[in-house]
Amino acid sequence: xxxxxxxxxxARTTPTNDDFGGRSGGRAFKDQLxxxxxxxxxxxxxxxxxxxxxxxxxxxxxxxxxxxWWGKSQAGITARREGGGAVxxxxxxxxxxxxxxxxxxxxxxxxxxxxxxxxxxxxxRVVSFMVDILTGIPSIVAGLFIYAVWVTTFGFQRxxxxxxxxxxxxxxxxxxxxxxxxxxxVPNELREASxxxxxxxxxxxxxxxxxxxxxxxxxxxxxxxxxxxxxxxxLLILAPYTKVIATDxxxxxxxxxxxxxxxxxxxxxxxxxxxVWGAALTLILIIFLLNILGRLIGRFSKVxx
Length: 305
Fold this sequence. Notes:
Blueprint: H1 24-64, H2 87-118, H3 122-136, H4 139-153, H5 160-184, H6 188-196, H7 201-212, H8 214-229, H9 233-238, H10 257-263, H11 270-299
Helix pairs in contact: 1-11, 2-5, 2-8, 2-10, 3-5, 4-5, 5-8, 6-7, 8-11, 10-11
């Protein structure tokens, strides 16, 4: 017969290895195996990247060191003749990217603001679904769509401004999704504090929400811009290439770095091949600088801090 002073058996509270479904040695082996597989996959994915960058740098790096590359065009330069530069293609790429950004950024940011701050019901679901559709369309489909509307339907000529419209279709979903995620990171306490002071919702968005997430929004814009600058299909369909400097979006001809690469890609003569590799390296360098700029701006994001 048990007495009152006799204590009951104490329950085991310290977990053992069996409580976690296996021995510690087995879990350690699985962890190490997963680590090796992940690093192996990373190195395998890194091989083609390093290969491409190395080949482009070795074959086109000397072109970027020449003064003419940054100051002259390809006017009067044939495939057999050395020399010439890429200033016409660089200017055309930057002009089209700037106009594309001027069209895409307001539309993308306002769409994201609507989805996060106002979007409710069927209309918001339709808008979000359409953004998802635009995210997945290939660039050639965007080019063919603008060609069907711009040239076939309205009868206009193939112009560089039409390329900007096609690139806009590719850039808008990137801007929308990146801006939407940054707006969602803004603490609701900031909105509620503003509402408690009697500030209208539209002024809260303009004065509190957007400035707080501004750095992240700019980062997403730069990343979207870096994506569309390397597109080739809309350029081939909508904007004929020219070797001279052309800055008029309504002039009919404009040189860009992707079309400069495509122009001489099937050449076997060394001067033409050097210019192709030089244009490819220049495009990579511009996109690389945009990505670095986006990362630097993201480090100073108010949302992160």
